[in-house]
Amino acid sequence: MKRLTPDEVEREIAALDSLDIAALQNRWRELYKVPPPFKVRSGFLRRAIAYRLQELVYGGLKPATRRELRRIAEEARLKRARSRGEKRGDTDGLDLSEVPHLRPQRKILSPGTRLLREWNGRMESVEVTDDGFLWREKTYRTLSAVAVAITGTKWSGPKFFGLLGRRSSASVSAKVAHVASLQTTELPDG
After folding, report:
1. How far is 57 from 50, CA to CA, in rounded Å?
2. pLDDT band for position 165 (cuts 50, 70, 90)
3. Could you tell me the residue range of the domain that residue 170 belongs to?
4. In a domain, 1, yes or no
5. What is the dihedral of CA 10, 13, 17, 19, to 10 degrees?
6. Chain mean position to CA 137
7. Of the chain's two ends, which shows fewer C-beta atoms within 10 Å, N or C?
8. 125, 119, 132: which is closest to 184 by C-alpha?
9. Rounded Cα–Cα distance for residues 24 and 51 (Å)
10. Does residue 129 form part of some domain?
11. Are 181 and 131 found together in one domain?
């Protein structure tokens, strides 16, 4: 399949409304390289084809987003199974009584949280905002972008600020203070 331009994708998405179910199923096969789901409605096929076309031109979900969506789906599946009282064997071999509650893989920092990190003899302070991370009156989208701005070299933001636990370098000495409560909690060195 040739690479489509954004304009071609828009035209093709607009043309999906005129395709019958057989044509939609053929387009699905071309884009996904597998047969469409059995007895799926044309509306679903149109939306899935439109998504795939946009994904090919603009890029798909980031791996972290895919993992998070998989985690959420698995948690929902386990909750449904628990609510139905399913036993071993009913849930693909999982003993639900032994499955811990699934938690998000990444830590979510609340707006107002202040991250402190000493770097080259200077204490750097970053505040978590609704829009990202504020450092020296400039807002950054990611914590890693802040770490790069501070150090001038590529860093993992969570690692630089000591949010990844013991895997960080021993020289990392970071503190987290929540501005609203004015409490300071020592993060693990490391």
Report:
1. 11
2. low
3. 113-186
4. no
5. 120
6. 27
7. N
8. 125
9. 13
10. yes
11. yes
Q: Are 137 and 129 in contact (CB under 8 A)?
A: no
- Tell me if 177 sits within 8 A of 185, measured CB to CB: yes
Q: Which of the listed residues 98, 121, 152 is the one where a domain comes to its end?
A: 98
Q: Which of 164, 161, 176 is nearest to 186 (CA)?
A: 176
Considering the domain architecture, whether residues 84 and 44 belong to the same structural domain is answered as: no
One domain, residues 87 and 118: no
Length of the chain equals: 190
105 located within any domain:
no
Rg (CA), the chain: 24
Q: How many domains does the chain have?
A: 3
Packing angle, helices 6-15 and 42-58, rounded to 10: 180
Kind of pairing, strands 138-140 and 174-178? unpaired
Neighbours of 133 (CB within 10 A): 24
d(CA 29, CA 55): 16
Confidence of residue 166 (pLDDT cuts 50, 70, 90): low
Q: What is the pLDDT of residues 98-147, one digit of tens each?
A: 444 445 445 678 889 999 999 999 999 999 998 899 999 999 999 999 99
Helix (H) or strand (E) holding 42: helix 42-58
Same domain? 132 vs 179: yes
Residue 106 lies in a domain: no
* pLDDT at position 177: 42
Residue 132 phi, psi (nearest 5): 150, -125
Q: pLDDT value at position 84?
A: 81
